[in-house]
Amino acid sequence: MSMPSVEVVKNHEHIKKTEEKKQNSFFAKFKQIYLGPIIAFVVFIAIWQAVPLLLGLKHYILPKPTDVVSAAIEDWHLLWPAVQITVVESVVGFLVSAVVGILVSILLATSKILERSIYPYAIILQTIPVVAVAPIVVIWFGAGYNSIVVISFLIGFFPVISNTLMGLNSVDKNMDELFTLYNASKWQRMWKLRLPAALPYMMAGLKISCTLSIVGAIVGEYIAGIGGGKGGLGYSITVAAIQVKTSYLFACGIAAAILGIGFYLLVSLFANLMLRSWHESAMKVDK
Amino acid sequence: MATVQKDVVSFQHVSKVFNGETIALSDFNLSIDEGEFLSFLGPSGCGKSTALRLVAGLGNATQGTVKVFNEPPKQIVQNTNDIAFVFQDANLLPWRTVLDNVLLPLELRGGNKKEQKKEAIRVLEMVGLKEHVKAYPRQLSGGMKMRVSIARALAAKPKMLLMDEPFGALDEITRQTLQLELLDIWKKEDMTILFVTHNVFEAVFLSTRIAVMSARPGRLSSTIDVELPFPRQLSIRTNQKFTDYVDVASDSLENSSEQRELV
Ligand SMILES: Nc1ncnc2c1ncn2[C@@H]1O[C@H](COP(=O)(O)OP(=O)(O)O)[C@@H](O)[C@H]1O
Ligand SMILES: [Mg+2]
Questions:
Q1: Interface predicted TM-score of the whole assembly (ipTM), two decimals
Q2: Is B154 an interface residue toward A (CB < 8 Å)?
Q3: Of A101, A184, B15, B118, whose CA is between 20 and 30 Å from A221?
Q4: What whole-number percentage of chain B has pLDDT above 70?
Q5: What is the pTM of this model?
């Protein structure tokens, strides 16, 4: 009979503890997670700022962080449109690789024969460096936007296929038998079992593909140029390199990095939303 | 009560060999009548699951014939909702809520959505999960998952329930509760149940008949009619007759394993 009272006492202690925790938790978490990286960042910038000064390096060899920032501000009217163009190209490239990748995976997964005969070529195609075939793409699709999107698609497409296909083929044997016992049709099995089961894999593929699609867009701009209108980040980078505007070159590189991180975080957020209802299995794949 | 249909399941000289070398079942003969609660009891690896899966049409007999309602099992599975299977791990789809998991068999068969939902709620009520319809499997305990799994099996109103060690992974208390509930459901829904277990107490407590099996090769070594009255309460376990049946079943199990050692 004394059991309940013990529990009550425990509960009180528990509540007290959680209250204390709440006050401390913000600082504790801040210290644990953010403080280290912030210090490292500040130290890194400080060294970067100091080295060119100490060694007397010219700004076109190694610009100081302050040079980079002022270059970015000065040429903002060039940088900002370039960023926008690259964003559009890589987002379109990514969306096309996501849609085509998922559709092709579903098609391949519906027939073992199809998968066995076509998938090996998909792997071989993947090993061909895109940079090597990019000029062909330019011949086919013309200089500029179209070619850049195609190159971005070519780079981002394969991770979607390989991951989705793996997911579609990874269905638990018992679940598969459950569907057999209810005499499910091929398409019922696809929609109600294989695709949902593949979702975590698919999302992992999209996360890889989104950063690659930015790489694809920038590489595409190196090769396919502008073709009328203004150029994106890749084009700006080539021009800045020719003119030895090293500070602006750094600013472009940093902008590309921020773009990549931002895009990745956005797609991750989307992935988490999609997998909200069963993140258990989502985590299995992520690790 | 309507007349009991004989031989709703029949194994005739059934053997099952895997990969041309593992003899899972050898000359297995057994007939089961409508309304029975029959347990397959035996050590692990003696072919209990194999036998049950043959009844569900998951795999073919290497020799002999298995018939369910006088037809090949695959036919029954394709054309009717008469057989439902409960797997050892609850085998729920993690991306579906409790309600949607139970709705699955109804969805796959097609029909009126509203009626499907009514039926799903009815069976969820029967297993005491009406409050948890919106939960996801990961939010449930092992016992609750198994309840959902049973509800899903019942949703399509099967005439026969096949259960492969459904309570094997549960703690003793949950297992006892579920055993009682299962007996209730069996009476209410008027089904034939084929139940696989390696637990002698469970087999005696639940069954009207026990098929004791021996391993290597998997054979039927004896059948035991359990003539304990229904409804059965947990207190029956201390009853002399109950313990007698447990002794008989245990002896039968031991004999069959001795036979194996002599071979
Ligand atoms: N799919 C399979 N492939 C090969 N061997 C199997 C397969 N399924 C079962 N077996 C073998 O058949 C025998 C009986 O297995 P099973 O029916 O699962 O036994 P139980 O359910 O009584 O533990 C075991 O030796 C097992 O290894
Ligand atoms: Mg088994």
A1: 0.90
A2: no
A3: A101
A4: 97
A5: 0.82
Q: Do A277 and B136 touch (CB under 8 A)?
A: yes
Domain CATH number, residue B41: 3.40.50.300
**B252 in a structural domain:** yes
Mutate to test the interface with A, among B108, B145, B152, B154 (most CBs of A within 10 A): B108
pLDDT at A7 over 60: no
Task: With respect to residue B214, please indicate whether it lies within any of the assigned structural domains.
Answer: yes
In the stretch 81-140 of chain B, residues with CB closer than 8 A to chain A read 83-85, 87, 89, 91, 93-95, 97, 104-105, 107-109, 136-138
Q: Around ion ligand 2, which residues have CB less than 5 A away?
A: B 49
- The C-alpha angle with vertex A148 and arms to A75 and A117, in degrees rounded to 5, equals 150
pLDDT greater than 50 at residue A214: yes
Show residues of chain A in contact with B108, CB under 8 Å: 179, 182-184, 188, 192
Q: Which chain A residues contact residue B58 at CB under 8 A?
A: 177, 180-181
Is B192 touching ligand 1 by the criterion CB < 6 Å?
Answer: no
Cβ separation of A178 and B87 shorter than 8 Å?
Answer: yes
Domain with B24, as residue range(s), is: 9-82+158-262
Please tell me what DSSP assigns to residue B77.
H
Which tops the pLDDT comparison, B217 or B220? B220
The residue-averaged pLDDT of B54-73 equals 94
| Distance, CA of A254 to CA of B47 (rounded, Å) | 64
d(CA B21, CA A50): 75
Candidate from A175, A182, A281 with C-beta closest to B108: A182
Mean pLDDT of chain B: 90
Nearest CA in chain B to A277: B95
Q: How far is the CA of B13 from the centre of ligand 1 (A)?
A: 18
Residue B178 lies in a domain: yes
Q: Give how far the C-alpha of residue B79 lies from the chain's centroid of Cα atoms, to the nearest Å.
A: 21
The tally of domains found in chain B comes to 1
Q: What is the pLDDT of residues A245-282, one digit of tens each?
A: 899 999 999 999 999 999 999 999 999 888 876 655 44
**B85:A181 CB<8 A:** yes
Distance CA(B155)–CA(B125), nearest Å, equals 11
Q: Could you tell me the strand order of the sheet in which B9-18 lies?
A: B22-32, B9-18, B63-68
Question: Does B135 reside within a domain?
Answer: no
Q: How far is the CA of B162 from the centre of ligand 2 (A)?
A: 12
The encoded tokens of residue B39 equal 């347990």
Whose tokens are 């999609």? That residue is A274
Q: Please state the rounded mean pLDDT for residues B234-246.
A: 91
Of A249, A247, A183, which Cα lies nearest the Cα of A218? A249
What is residue A281's predicted lDDT score, i.e. its pLDDT? 47
